[in-house]
Structure formats: C-alpha cells, structure tokens
Amino acid sequence: DWTMGDYKNSSIKAIREKVGDGKVLLALSGGVDSSVAAALLAEAVGNQLTCVFVDHGLMRKNEGDEVEAAFSKWDINLIRMNEEDAFLGALKGLTDPEDKRKAIGAQFIRTFEKMGKQIGEQIGKIDYLAQGTIYPDVIESGKDDAAVIKSHHNVGGLPDFVDFKEIIEPLRMLFKDEVRQLGFELGLSEQLVMRQPFPGPGLGIRITGEITKEKCDILREADAIFREEIANAGLDKEINQYFAVLTNTRTVGVMGDSRTYDYALALRGVTTSDFMTADWARIPYEVLDKASSRIVNEVVGVNRIVYDITSKPPATIEWE
Ligand code: XMP
C-alpha cells in the first residue's frame, strides 16, 4: 500500500539526488504549500536550503514569529526580512484598491532585488529555486512553469538574481489535502498545516482607504480575537476562510460617559470548496456576539462591528 510516508521518503531521495551538494532557495510565505515544501526540502538537504520570509508589515498577529518557530527544528538558513517600513512607505497616500495592489507588487520586486544582494553576500550562488506549486496550480496555469510562477506569486516572473539550474516543485503532484497530510508526516504543527488561505498582499487588501501602521495594528488585534473565538467555538475547520476587515468609515459610539468616533470593523466568514464561489458562513449569533464584544472592549479604535452577509458572487471574499 502506498502511504504519505512512502511519498515523503521517495521525494526526499529524489531531491537529494537532484540537488547533490547544490544550494536551494525557497520563498516562504507562511502559507501551507510553501511551508510543507520547505519542510520537505529541509529534511532532504538541511543547511543547503535557504528560506526567505518577507515580513511586509501586512502580516497577521505573530505570524512572522510563528513561521520562524515552526522551522527552528531544522538546520536551514532562514532569512527574515523586515520590510514593514518599505511597504508602508510605498502605500502611503494610496486609497484605490488597484493602486494599492500595484504598489505592493512593485515593492515585492524591490524587496526581492534587495534579498538577492543579501543572499549573494551571505549564501553565495543559488543552484535551485524551489516552490510549493501544487497540482491544482498546475492545472489552473497550464503546463508552462513561467506561467505558474507568474500567476501564483504576487510579483511578475522570476527574480533575476537567481542563477539557478532548475525549479524544484516537490508538491506538483499533490492535491491540497495530500499536502496537508505530508505536512503532518513531516512533523509540522496542526496550526500551520490546517491554516486557512492568506493572500499575498496580506492585510493590504483588508483595510479600505489609506493603509497606515496604526490601522494595521488595529486590524491585527481585532482579527486575532475573531480567529480565536472561531477556534474556541470549534468552527475553524468548517469555515474555510474567516477574517476581519477594517473599513475606512468612522462612526459615533458611546463608552462610559463619553462619545467615541472610531472605525467600523467588518467580520467575514465564508464556506467554499474552491474559493471561486463562496457562501457566507452562518456563524452562530453567540459566537458573533462574543467576538464583537471582545473586539470593541479590547481594541482601541474600533467601536462598531458588522458581519458581512454577501456571498461570492456578487461580492468577492476579500474586500479589495
Ligand atoms: P476573492 O477576494 O477574489 O478571493 O474572492 C479568492 C481567494 O483568493 C485569495 N486572494 C489572493 N491570494 N494573492 C493571493 O495570494 C492575492 O492577491 C489574492 N487576492 C485574493 C483570497 O484570500 C481568497 O482565498
């Protein structure tokens, strides 16, 4: 019988044969696919692997630390680039959703160039680029590697500093549930392996209007509370994606004896099988109530919570 353990072992063997004593680079996003690919490569080639994690300042609460902790058991080179100032600088003054997405994409390219220099200095020449492309990505994007890379990264094309022989895609034959199984087989935590999707532009597409550090911090806190309450209610496996969105609308409220004028925050939860269409999740009122009271009490800057009850279509899952 074929098991995921067999798949793991044969993949490790194949990677070792291919890579030899070469060096491999992988961009770690913190998502399931790149994390499982990184763990597999770490098992196979250890410190010949360099993973780069770009913290663009639009990550969820504690995300960077969690990624770093998850890989601390392997002897790999993990480079964490703190690019918050660069990304927030690039976003300054922008309010249009497409302008913001473009600014994030352009900053990713500049950050990758900077990363190239850093890797050149610290690691030397890279022989292989690895990525966590999974089977559904391959089908979606056609067979052309360049197309896969283009459509599944938030930047256009390959970073030109990488003088690599080949792209290694060890998850290319696997469906999502198999990738998760492999992740467990490699000893990654349930928290990482069962993680909901998180978009490349991060909180940048969950803050309407201008993006500032203050707004990112407000959203991070509120989102963490919502996710915690969903998990406490045991709904984290039923609801496929759930998160908070910080609107650019401030509304009047009352706290104690004084009037407040703070942001309205939206909660979003969807059930879906393919993320192409989605239904809004029927989260029990008690769970919404708990999350709402906690957020307005614990997060300064938010005084009103709404729940998004639109499906996709006509709405999208994200707000921008
Ligand atoms: P929408 O909002 O289009 O989202 O209904 C569908 C799914 O795609 C994710 N998403 C993205 N993922 N880069 C990503 O890596 C992006 O720019 C991006 N935009 C949306 C979204 O989170 C949802 O799972």
TrEMBL record:
Reactions this protein catalyses: XMP + L-glutamine + ATP + H2O = GMP + L-glutamate + AMP + diphosphate + 2 H(+)
Domain of life: Bacteria
Keyword check for Membrane: no
Binding locations of ATP: S29, G30, G31, V32, D33, S34, S35
GO MF, any single term: ATP binding
EC number(s) from the headed UniProt entry: 6.3.5.2
Protein's name in the database: GMP synthase [glutamine-hydrolyzing]
Pathway: Purine metabolism; GMP biosynthesis; GMP from XMP (L-Gln route): step 1/1
Protein's job: Catalyzes the synthesis of GMP from XMP.
Gene: guaA
Keywords: ATP-binding, Glutamine amidotransferase, GMP biosynthesis, Ligase, Nucleotide-binding, Purine biosynthesis
Residue span(s) of domain GMPS ATP-PPase: 2-195
GO cellular component labels: cytosol
Subunit structure: Homodimer.
UniProt keyword ATP-binding, yes or no: yes
Coiled-coil positions: none
Name of the top EC class for this enzyme: ligase
Native organism: Agathobaculum butyriciproducens
